[in-house]
Design brief:
This protein is α/β, with parallel strands linked by helices. Helix content is 30%, strand content 23%. Helix 3 packs across helix 4 and helix 7 runs antiparallel to helix 8. The structure holds zinc ion (ZN). The site of zinc ion has 7 residues, from loops.
Length: 244
């Protein structure tokens, strides 16, 4: 099975369309949460996703938009965008987001938004955080989003001790997933934060057991114009241009 693994779309349907076009045809889409928040087209994103055979879990911005998290825990720009997203969403799309689980297991893969330990909120940025988190899922591999930066954490052995290594992935063709335990972050579709404004995603081949990282350019200025039209916070508009 060929799976498009993506995360953190954040209501950016221009970026999502570019990713779906670039990756197709795929058998399934696995979305690691934060479909909405920040951007200008929450309904468009939910509906694009729902047009594909897919799995999707909940992220912190999805929950904030639904009113399931305290908006005081978000910075003012994120909070304003979440409130606007909440007003925009149709009852049907709100119900879809409401029904997303915090965690899914698909064969050898666990899907969560933040971390296996705290699926909604925890950021896995460092190898030390990743290492602790290997105790909190049972499959060989876990897919996580939330940081908006592509990253692989590999759990290995050194002189009988467990060690965790952080690897910044390149986009040069498929890599073999091997037999070691991994936490894999595909980066963000709709608001990359690694200095590259192009949408980030990964293609997983479950039979060949390989993963390929990809970046795809999309019309950033269209999303930015759409955000300006709805008076979304300027800082959120500008950051899409430099991928941070
Ligand atoms: Zn996010």
């Amino acid at each position: 099975m060929l799976c498009l693994v993506l995360s953190d779309i954040h209501s950016n349907s221009e970026a999502l369309k570019a990713v779906l076009d670039d990756a197709s045809p795929v058998d399934q889409v696995w979305c690691l949460g934060d479909v909405v928040g920040y951007g200008p087209d929450p309904n468009g994103c939910v509906e694009l996703l729902r047009a594909f055979p897919h799995r999707c879990i909940a992220g912190n911005h999805d929950w904030a938009t639904l009113g399931k998290l305290d908006l005081r825990d978000f910075n003012p720009d994120a909070r304003d965008a979440n409130l606007w997203n909440r007003q925009e969403l149709t009852p049907e799309n709100l119900a879809y987001l409401e029904a997303r689980p915090e965690r899914l297991v698909e064969g050898e893969f666990t899907l969560i938004h933040g971390s296996p330990r705290y699926p909604i909120w925890e950021y896995i940025i460092y190898a030390s955080t990743a290492q602790v988190n290997f105790q909190h899922f049972d499959t060989q591999i876990c897919f996580a989003g939330h940081t908006h930066a592509p990253m692989i954490f590999r759990l290995g052995q050194e002189e009988g001790e467990e060690v965790c290594e952080a690897i910044t992935p390149s986009v040069e063709g498929p890599i073999s997933l091997g037999a070691e335990r991994l936490i894999i972050n595909p980066g963000s579709v709709g608001q990359p934060r690694d200095g590259d404004p192009r949408a980030s995603y990964a293609l997983l081949d479950t039979e060949a057991f390989t993963l390929e990282y990809r970046r795809v350019a999309y019309p950033v200025e269209k999303t930015q114009a759409h955000m300006m039209k709805h008076d979304l916070p300027l800082r959120l508009v500008l950051r899409l241009g430099y991928g941070w």
